[in-house]
Automatic annotation (TrEMBL):
Alphabetized SMART domains for the sequence: Beach (SM01026), WD40 (SM00320)
Protein name: BEACH domain-containing protein
Residue span, BEACH domain: 12-306
WD repeats: 445-486
Protein source organism: Eleginops maclovinus (Patagonian blennie)
Length: 659
C-alpha cells in the first residue's frame, strides 16, 4: 500500500503544477483560507485521511494555553512558525544540534544510527490514533497499534500538556497537529465513555482538558483555534512552516541549518529507491509504519508569503457585513421588491440577481427558473416558470398526503414536503424545458404525531430537520432517509427552523423562544424570555461569513413586524459547591477569600438579544401599531445587506451606512 501511495504522489506531483500554482495565487490573494490551502498542499503531497501513516499534517499555531482570553494581536500568543517543534526553545534546539553533531556519519545500508536531529517524527499512525482515541474506529486502531491503552499520564488528555511535551519537555516528542484540531470538536469529548484509566492522583481520564480561553466548551476551542489559524500573524508567517514541511527546508543543507533533519528512513521514498535489498526495504517500511513519513517535497525554493489578508473594513469589493455595525443599520424608505399578491415566502440571493417568491412557492432550479408551488384547495401541487409566471404542470402526487404546510428543495431533483398527514415525504422530480417528466415518492418518513409545520435541509451536512405541532423536531439522514434523533422540550408548536451550513448548528423556534442545538441533538442554549413577553418568531436565519467569526449572529423575524438579532455569549456561572460559611467578626479578608474560592466557577453559553430593528421606528422615530409580520429573511452574498420579506408582499433591505 505504501509503494502504491508513493507512485500516486509522484503522479499527482507531475500532473498538477497548474492546479498547485492556481491555489498558491488564490491563497496569496486571500481568496482561500489558510486551512483550505494547507489541505491542498497535503493532498498533492500524498497525505490522505485514508492512510494513518500519511495523514494530513497541520501546524501548532498557538503557544498560549494558560490565559483566560486569547490576544490574537500579540505575536507572543503564537508558536514560532519559522522553526520546527524541536527548536521552539533555545535549550531544546541546542540539545538536538548537539545530538546531530555527536552522531558519526557511517555509510552502508541498514544504518539505524544515521546523522539526524530527530529519530521520531511529527506525524505517524500512532500520533493520529492517540489524538482521535476517544472516537471510533480510532479507539480500536490505537488498541491494535499499542496493544492496549498507554499509561494515563502519557495519553492525550490536555491540550496544554500536549503542547508543552511537543515543544519543550519531551525530546522524543516533536509532533505537529492534525486537521481535526481546526474543525471537529467531537474528538475532544469522551462521548463513548471509554475507560482510559486514572491518573496517579485518582482522576479518571475523560474529556480532553481545554485551555482557559476555551471556556470549557470544545466548540469554542475549535472556533478560536481556527480563528488563530486564519489570523493575520499566521497568514504572514505560514509560508515559513510550509518551507519546513513541504518545501526547501525539508531536506539538505537548508534542513540542517533549520534543525529540521530526520532519520533517513523517514524519507521512505528515497530510501526505497536507493536499496535493492528486500530485507532493508522491509525494515524501512516497518520504520515508516511505526514512526511516520516525511511528505513529498513540493517546493525547492522558498515559498512566497501571503501578499495580504482580508480586513474587516469595507471596500467596493468587500463591503462591511451588516452585523459588524448593528447600531448603524438603516433601511430604505421604498421597498427593494414588491409582490402583487400575498406574503413573501422565499428570497434567494443568486450570483447576479435576487429572486423573490410568494408564500407556498420555492425556486426549484435557478438555471431553468422553475418554481414549485403548493397549498391549493384540492391539495395538488404545480410547477411553473418564474420568468413568465406561467404554470406548466399540475401534479396530484401530494393529494394522498393531506394538506401540505411546508416544503423544501435542496436540489433541482429533490423536493421534500410535509403537512397535516404528519409524514415527511421525499420526492424525486425531473423537470426539463418547462416540462415535468416525473414526480415520484422516494420515501415517506414517519415519526411525528401531529402536523409538520416547517422544514430545513442541508445538503452539506446531509440532514433534514422537521418541526411539528407535537412540540418536537426530528433530524433525518438525507442520504439514508432514516431517523437520527429528536429535539424535544419545546413549549409549543415549532414555527421556524434553520441550519448553519458552516458548522452544522440548528436553531428551532417555538413561539417566541429560540433553541440552539448541535447536529447530534445536544441542546447548546436557549433564550430566556421569562422577564418580558415577546411575539412569535415566524422565520430565522444564521449569518455565515466565516465559521470562526465570533461576530456571527442569528436573525429572527417576528409576528409584530420586528427583526431581532441574537448572538451567543459566555457568562460565568457558579457551579454547585460547598455552601459559604458565615464570616465571623474576627475572620480576616484572606481567610474569607480562601473559603469562597472552594466554590467552582464555570461558563454558560447564552443567546443574548443585541439589536432590534423596526422600520417605522427607524424612519419616523415612532413605532407603528399595525406593522406586517416578517415572513422570510435572507442575507446578500457579500453579507452587507439583510433582506426582509413581510406579510404585505414587500421586501426591504437593511445595511450599514456607507463609509
Amino acid at each position: 500500500m505504501l509503494i502504491q501511495g508513493f507512485l500516486f504522489c509522484y503522479y499527482v506531483r507531475r500532473k498538477t503544477p497548474v492546479v498547485e500554482k492556481a491555489a498558491l495565487v488564490k491563497w496569496q490573494k486571500g481568496e482561500i483560507s489558510n486551512f483550505e490551502y494547507l489541505m491542498h498542499l497535503n493532498t498533492i503531497a500524498g497525505r490522505t485521511y485514508n492512510d494513518l501513516m500519511q495523514y494530513p499534517v497541520f501546524p501548532w499555531v498557538l503557544a498560549d494555553y494558560q490565559s483566560e482570553t486569547l490576544d490574537l494581536s500579540n505575536p507572543a500568543t503564537f508558536r514560532d512558525l519559522s522553526k520546527p517543534m524541536g527548536a521552539q526553545t533555545e535549550k531544546r534546539k541546542q540539545m538536538f544540534i548537539q545530538r546531530y553533531e555527536e552522531i558519526e556519519t557511517t555509510e552502508g545500508e541498514g544504518n539505524l544510527s544515521a546523522r539526524c536531529h530527530y529519530c521520531t517524527h511529527y506525524s505517524s499512525a500512532i500520533i493520529v490514533a492517540s489524538f482521535l482515541v476517544r472516537m471510533e474506529p480510532f479507539s480500536h486502531t490505537f488498541l491494535t497499534l499499542q496493544g492496549g491503552f498507554d499509561i494515563p499520564e502519557r495519553m492525550f488528555h490536555s491540550i496544554k500538556k500536549e503542547w508543552e511535551s511537543a515543544s519543550r519537555d519531551n525530546t522524543g516528542d516533536v509532533r505537529e497537529l492534525i486537521p481535526e484540531f481546526f474543525y471537529l470538536s467531537d474528538f475532544l469529548l469522551n462521548s463513548n465513555h471509554i475507560q482510559l484509566g486514572c491518573m496517579e492522583d485518582g482522576t479518571a481520564l475523560g474529556d480532553v482538558e481545554l485551555p482557559p480561553w476555551a471556556k470549557g466548551d470544545p466548540q469554542e476551542f475549535i472556533r478560536i483555534h481556527r480563528e488563530a489559524l486564519e489570523s493575520e500573524y499566521v497568514s504572514a508567517h505560514l509560508h515559513l512552516w510550509i518551507d519546513l514541511i513541504f518545501g526547501y527546508r525539508q531536506e539538505g543543507l537548508a534542513a540542517v541549518e533549520s534543525v529540521n533533519t530526520f532519520h533517513p528512513y523517514f524519507y521512505a521514498k528515497r530510501g526505497l529507491q536507493n536499496t535493492k535489498d528486500p530485507l532493508i526495504k522491509s525494515t524501512i517500511l516497518g520504520y515508516v509504519s511505526n514512526f511516520g513519513q516525511v511528505p513529498k517535497q513540493l517546493f525547492t525554493k522558498p515559498h512566497p508569503p501571503r501578499s495580504g489578508t482580508k480586513k474587516d473594513g469595507s471596500s467596493p469589493t468587500h463591503p462591511t457585513p451588516f452585523f459588524f455595525k448593528l447600531d448603524k443599520l438603516k433601511t430604505a424608505k421604498q421597498p427593494f421588491r414588491e409582490l402583487p399578491r400575498g406574503p413573501v415566502g422565499q428570497i434567494l440571493c443568486l450570483q447576479k440577481d435576487v429572486v423573490v417568491l410568494e408564500r407556498n412557492r420555492l425556486l426549484l432550479s435557478p438555471l431553468s427558473c422553475c418554481f414549485f408551488s403548493w397549498g391549493f384547495p384540492d391539495n395538488t401541487c404545480a410547477f411553473g416558470n418564474y420568468g413568465t409566471e406561467k404554470t406548466f404542470a399540475v401534479c396530484e402526487s401530494l393529494c394522498d398526503w393531506g394538506e401540505t404546510l411546508c416544503a423544501a428543495c435542496p436540489n433541482p431533483t429533490t423536493i421534500i414536503t410535509a403537512g397535516t398527514s404528519t409524514v415527511v415525504c421525499v420526492w424525486d422530480v425531473s423537470v426539463n424545458k418547462d416540462k415535468l417528466t416525473h414526480m415520484q415518492l422516494r420515501q415517506p418518513l414517519y415519526g411525528h404525531t401531529d402536523s409538520v409545520t416547517c422544514l430545513a435541509v442541508s445538503e452539506v451536512h446531509s440532514i433534514i430537520v422537521s418541526g411539528s405541532r407535537d412540540l418536537t423536531c426530528i433530524l433525518w439522514d438525507m442520504e439514508e432517509l432514516s431517523y437520527i434523533t429528536q429535539l424535544a422540550g419545546h413549549p409549543c408548536s415549532i414555527s421556524a427552523l434553520a441550519i448553519n451550513e458552516l458548522i452544522g448548528e440548528i436553531v428551532s423556534c417555538a413561539g417566541p423562544q429560540l433553541y440552539l442545538w448541535t447536529m447530534k441533538g445536544q441542546l447548546l442554549t436557549c433564550t430566556d424570555i421569562s422577564c418580558w413577553p415577546q411575539p412569535d418568531v415566524l422565520c430565522v436565519c444564521f449569518t455565515q461569513r466565516h465559521e470562526w467569526d465570533d461576530k456571527n449572529v442569528i436573525v429572527t423575524g417576528c409576528a409584530d413586524g420586528n427583526i431581532r438579532i441574537w448572538k451567543t455569549e459566555y457568562t460565568r456561572t457558579q457551579l454547585p459547591g460547598p455552601p459559604e460559611e458565615p464570616v465571623s467578626p474576627g475572620q480576616d479578608g484572606a481567610e474569607r477569600d480562601v473559603s469562597s474560592s472552594c466554590q467552582v466557577k464555570g461558563w454558560e453559553r447564552r443567546l443574548v438579544l443585541c439589536q432590534e430593528l423596526n422600520r417605522s421606528l427607524a424612519l419616523s422615530q415612532r413605532r407603528s401599531k399595525n406593522s406586517p409580520a416578517i415572513t422570510t429573511l435572507a442575507i446578500s452574498r457579500s453579507h452587507a445587506t439583510l433582506l426582509v420579506g413581510d406579510a404585505w408582499g414587500r421586501v426591504f433591505t437593511w445595511s450599514c451606512d456607507s463609509v
